[in-house]
């Protein structure tokens, strides 16, 4: 069984989440995922992960994606070793990890080249909405 992978750096700045959303959706569509709601959910997850990396991380932001046996994992690495923690929402934010938890089966953090990599396993794509099986 093959594993599909993709990896790209995201330019830092206010446009980073949008850039990551577009690239992630393009890759997933290229892998055969066609369910619009599922793709929108994947876009929200990557946007939140990248937003957290830009706001609270350090250094460059690297996005990776993996698909194995139909399970898709999104990964975002940055140069900070500070582990994200869920906090109460306020006018400045605090909703990102709650969104990630609602739209994924699980998420976590691992060490990555002196910083960290936050990963999230997406909910399964609805049956019949993926053109190619891995």
TrEMBL record:
This is Histidine kinase. InterPro entries: Anti-sigma-factor_SerPK, HATPase_C_sf, HATPase_dom. Transmembrane segments: none annotated. Residues 18-120 form the Histidine kinase/HSP90-like ATPase domain. Pfam families: HATPase_c_2. CDD domains: HATPase_RsbW-like (cd16936). GO terms for molecular function: protein serine/threonine kinase activity. It comes from Couchioplanes caeruleus subsp. caeruleus. The lineage of its organism: Bacteria, Bacillati, Actinomycetota, Actinomycetes, Micromonosporales. Keywords: Kinase, Serine/threonine-protein kinase, Transferase.
């Amino acid at each position: 069984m093959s594993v599909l992978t993709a990896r790209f750096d995201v330019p830092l700045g206010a446009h980073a989440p949008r850039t990551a959303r577009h690239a992630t959706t393009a890759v997933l569509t290229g892998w055969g995922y066609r369910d619009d709601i599922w793709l929108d959910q994947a876009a929200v997850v990557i946007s939140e992960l990248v937003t957290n990396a830009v706001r609270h991380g350090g250094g460059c932001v690297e996005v990776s994606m993996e698909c194995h046996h139909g399970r898709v994992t999104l990964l975002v690495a940055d140069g900070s070793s500070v582990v994200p923690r869920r906090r109460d929402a306020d006018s400045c934010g605090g909703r990102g990890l709650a969104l990630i938890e609602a739209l994924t089966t699980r998420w976590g953090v691992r060490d990555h080249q002196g910083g960290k990599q936050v990963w999230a396993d997406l909910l399964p794509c609805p049956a019949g909405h993926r053109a190619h099986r891995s």
